[in-house]
Amino acid sequence: MDTRLPDAVREAQARMRKFVEEELVPLEPSLPPFANVLPKEDASRLVQRMRAEGLWALAVPRRFGGGGLGLVGLCALREALGHTTLWSLAPLLGSEPPILLYQANEAQQKEFLLPTLRGERYGCFALTEPGAGSDAASLSLRAEPDGEGHYVLNGTKIFISYADEADYALVFGRVPAQGGSPGGITLFLVDLDTPGVRVVRQIPTMGGARPSEIVFEDCRVPESRIVGEVGKAFELAQHWFDCDRIALQPPIALGAAARCLSLAQRHGVASSVDIAQWALQLDAAREMLYHAAWRADQDLEVRHEAAMCKTLATTTALAAIDQVMQWFGARGYSRELPMERYYRDLRRFTIAAGTVEIQQFIVARGLIRGYTGLGYEEVR
Amino acid sequence: MDYRLPEEVRLLRETVRGFVRESVRPLEGAWRPGEGLPAEVVASLQAARRRLGLWGLSAPAGHGGAGLSWLGQAVIQEELQRSPLGLWTLGVFAAGEPPFPMYDLQGEARERYLLPCLEGTRQAHQLVAPGGSGEGNVAVQWGPDGAVIDGALRSVPRVLTADIMLLVVEDGPDAWAFLCDPDLSGYRIGPARGTMGSVELVDLLWEGCRIPRERILASAGPAARRWRAHQQATVLAAGAVGAAQRCLEDALHHVRVRETFGRPLADRQAIQWMLADSARELHAARLLVYRAASLADAGLDAASAARRAKVFATTVATRIVDRVIQMHGAYGYSQDLPFERFWRELRFYAYAEGDNRELLEAEADGLVADLIG
Ligand SMILES: Cc1cc2nc3c(=O)[nH]c(=O)nc-3n(C[C@H](O)[C@H](O)[C@H](O)COP(=O)(O)OP(=O)(O)OC[C@H]3O[C@@H](n4cnc5c(N)ncnc54)[C@H](O)[C@@H]3O)c2cc1C
Fold it and tell me: What is the CATH number of domain A7-117?
C-alpha cells in the first residue's frame, strides 16, 4: 500500500501553487466583492501562461491530448487553486474538463469536447428545475420527438452555473413514452444559440456565483445531439456526478481552509491545539479525497466514497473558515482578509451538486442495503 | 499510489476474523464487569494465538518473529479488537510483543528480559518520561557501574500482566532506557487504582534506585519513538477502528430488525444520519491508520502520521460507539450488550500513549505545513 501522491502529481501541484501565488493571489484585492469573471485581458494572459508552463489540461486523458494525471491529478491541481479566492473566477483555466463528454460519441466529441479542451468552447450543465432539485429524477422539461429527426424541448432550467458565458449546455429532458419506446430522461447537447433557448436572468447569490435561469420554448434539437441512449441519461451521468462530487468542491474547500488556518497560525490568533484540531479534520478529509479519486482512476465504484468525501470536506472546511473568521474578530469579517469571500463562495458547496443531506442519505442507504465495501478497501 | 491490501494481509485478516468469531467472541460472557479476565481464559487465548502464528508480530526479522508489516499488524489489531476481549489493556494480545528498544539487550539481560518477553512468560511495558527533576520527570545520575534514578510517575496505566517497566528517559533527542524489574531496591509500585475500564493506574516511584549497567540501554531514543508510533498506529488507532466497526455492524443489524410505530428503525432519518456520520468518520480513521502503517513499511518516519491516526481514530471511535448505544436504546446502555464496555475501554485510548491534546499540540505545525503544501 502506498498512500502518497505520485511524484508527477506532486510536481504539477507545486507548479500550480506557484502559479496561484504569483498570478492570482496578487489580483485578489483589485476585484469587486461579487466579481464572478476575470477581466478579459487578465484571463487571456493567464491562459497563455498556463499553457506555456504546461499546466493546461493536465488531468485530461492522454487520448484527448491531455496530461493524463487522472482524477487524482485534477484534485491536486484544484487543491492548489483553492489557495486563492479567485478559484471560482477561473473556470476557464482548463482544469474542469466536462468528464461526461468523454463518453459522448466521436462526432459529439469533435464538436464539443475537443474545442472545449482547447479552450475555444465552453459548456454548462442543466439539470435542476424550479420543481426538481435534489429529486432530479422528477424533472419535467419535455423533449418530444417530432418524427423528423428532431426533439422539441419545452421547460425551464434554473441555477445553471456559467450559462451566461457558455455556448452549449448539457440538458436533461424527459422523452415521453411513445409507440414501443419507454422514453425517459435523456441527455442532449444543445447549442445555446439554438432558436427557442433563452437565458432569461442571472440569479445573484451570497457569493460570486451568478447561476442562470434558462427557458426552452419549442427548441428543436437534432437527434444526433443525444448523448448515449434515450432514457439512459442517469445511468450515463452517475459516474460523472460521482467524480464531480470528488473533484469539484472538496479540493477547493481544502485548499481554502488550509490557507485560512495558516493565516490564523501566522497571526497567532488561536492556540496551536485549536488549530491542530481543525487541521487534523482537514488532513483526514484530504486522505479521503485522494483515496476516492484513486478509486475513480481505477474505474472502481465511488458512489459512497464520493458522498462521504463531499460531506466531510465541505462541511469541515466551511466550519473551519468560519472559525478562523471568529478568531480574527472584526478583521476576519472584513474584506482585508480572505475569509469572508471564501465563506460566501464556499457556502454553496453544501447545496450545489447534491446537498450534504442527500450525501448522508446515499451513505446510509448503502449501509442499510449491506454495501460491505464501505470503509473497507476491498479492491483486488 | 495504491490502496490495495496486499494478498497476504487479506488472507491474514480472514484468519484472524475467523479466530475472533469462533474462539474469542464465545468467551465474552466470561469477562464479568469490574473484574479481570479469568487466568485460564487468558492462557487459552494466548495458546490459540500461538497456534495461529499471531505471536511475535512486531519482532524484527532475525528474532523469531513473523516479520510482519505494520499494515498487517494494524489489520490484525482491527480484527482482534472487534471483541472487547481483544483490547490491548488486557495484555492478552500484548504478550510476546516486547518494545523495540529491548531487542538491543545483550548477554545476560537479553536472556533474562528479552527472551522471556518473546516467549510470553514475562511482559514489558514502555513508559516515556522527560529527564530532570520535578513532578513527572526522572532524574538520572551516572556512576561507575550504572545509574541512580530518582523521580515519580503518577497514574501510569498498567497493562495487567506487564511486570517489567521499560522506563525511557528522554534528554533532548537522546534517550536511555532502564529496565525496571520489581526486584530493584528503591523502586516502588504504588497500590493499583481502578478506572472506568479494565486498565489500572499505579504510581511508580524511584528513590535512589540503582540500576546496573547491563539493564540500561543507551541511545534508545529512535527505537523507543518507533515503538510509541507502533503502539499508537497499529494497536490503539487500528484497534479503535476495529472496535467501532464491530459496533457499527451490530447497529446496522439492529436497525433493520427493530421496529417502532410499525416501521424498522432503519427507515428513520435520525437513525440514518447517525449511521452515515459513523461510517464517514470510521472510513477516515481507517485511512489515517493505513497511511501511518504504510509509511512505516516504506521505511519512512511515521511518528507524525501515527500521532494523527491515534488522535483521530480514538476520538471518533468513542463517538461512534456512543451513537451505537443510542441506536440500541436501553439495551445499548445495559451490560447485556458489549457497547457500554467498548465505550469504557476505548475512552482510555484518548490518553494512552500520549494524551490526545498533547499529541495534537505536537502536530500543529506539521499539520498546517502539510496542508498548505
Ligand atoms: C451556486 C449554485 C450553482 C448551481 N449550479 C448548478 C448547475 O450548474 N447545474 C444544475 O443543474 N444545478 C445547479 N445548481 C442547483 C443544485 O444542484 C441544487 O440546488 C441542488 O441539487 C438542491 O436542489 P434544490 O436547491 O432544489 O433544493 P431541494 O431539493 O428543494 O432541497 C431543499 C432542502 O431539503 C433537503 N432535502 C431534500 N430532499 C431531502 C431528503 N430526502 N431528506 C432530507 N433532506 C432533504 C435538501 O438537502 C435541502 O437542504 C446550483 C445551485 C447553486 C446554489
Answer: 1.10.540.10
